[in-house]
Amino acid sequence: MPVDTQRLSVTEQEGQVVITGLDAEAESKWGVMQLDQRHVLLSLGDGAASILKAPTSFGSCPSGVFRDFLLGLNVAHFSGVLAVDSGFGQKRLFFDHGQIVFAGSNIMDDRLGEVIFREARISLDELTDSAAQVTKSRKFGQVLIASSIFTNTELWLALKLQVRQIIRSLFMAEQVFFEMESGHGLAPTQVVFQESMQELITECYSFGCAFRSFLSKLKSDSQVALTVSGEKLKSEQAEGTFMADFIGLLGQESHVQSLLNASKLIDPYTVATLLNLVNQGLCRVTPEVDEGRRNVPHLAPLRGKVDALTYVLSSVRKGFEGAHKNLPIADLRTFAAALNPDGFASIYLDEHGALTKDCIGGMFSQCIANSGRIAYFDRALESLIQFLLQVAGDNLEYKVASGIRQDYRAVTQ
User: Where are the domains positioned within the chain?
Assistant: First the structure.
């Protein structure tokens, strides 16, 4: 008989973990495996360890639990394949001694060429011409190398981006279904991430949090409106690029549902692209759902850092105005964009150098769901503050720039 996990309650009593809420007829024998200092894996019947040792195992869990499960596989040094069905295609994660070394997908939008085209790494003509040269014995990446479109280094980075994008996509859904197969040497090739598995999975999970928060704001009557001229936006993009085509589509389809119908991407990826544009302040969705800064105690440091950035920006702007100079907004926006990881834009500045409203909302949404992102955004915003102070020091008189820095130190002590 299946167990209703919504009715289960886990408590600690006198040093013991107590699970209550099981049906009287349910299997009462539990197995447990400690994964690290904060996580244990529980299972009914044969024991938790069998999940990682059995040739194949099945499971289903919410997105947040799936994050911890992947981290548990890392701690347990699992080797094998995790096939995941999130409702819009099947993805496969390849593990080697607990590390994700590759990922595959049966969705066309996850193919290497499609990923790097969306990220403006290749043109549409290069994508089309290269795809036509692919055979059973000649892979897309080999075509890019042979055609001198990519160097070996660029292809390596593109493969890492593809894997990262596939991992992120797993957290777009509220619930995932997976099947595990243990074994060694199953990955067709391997990539190596510089960050730890903890950092990689946390970042990918945070993307999912931002996506699902944005998705929850889209209603049946939602409309999309560009905040600046569509022709101006298109002129800033190279002709034939994915973003130029998408912006052109936005100019034709103002209704969210019609945009989804007209887009060549699967719905989740269309929504993700729209999320990036909204965060950049290039378009908005109406009617707006203003969640505001939720009164969550653990978000206080982040609220303070946002206010500190606003204060420093105002001071630096006044300093430039007093010196009759133009604040280098383009440099500020370029620096801010560089703080974002590939394909996951969380930090954007508007035409005045301030954080966009939706950017701030996205940061808070991520941190509400995943408190580990507070430290990440704290570092990013502090980097922006220090860059602003450096810009002031390099372009304004010493007395003015020094005064701005001292004022910032005074308000943050």
Answer: 54-185+197-214, 218-286, 297-412
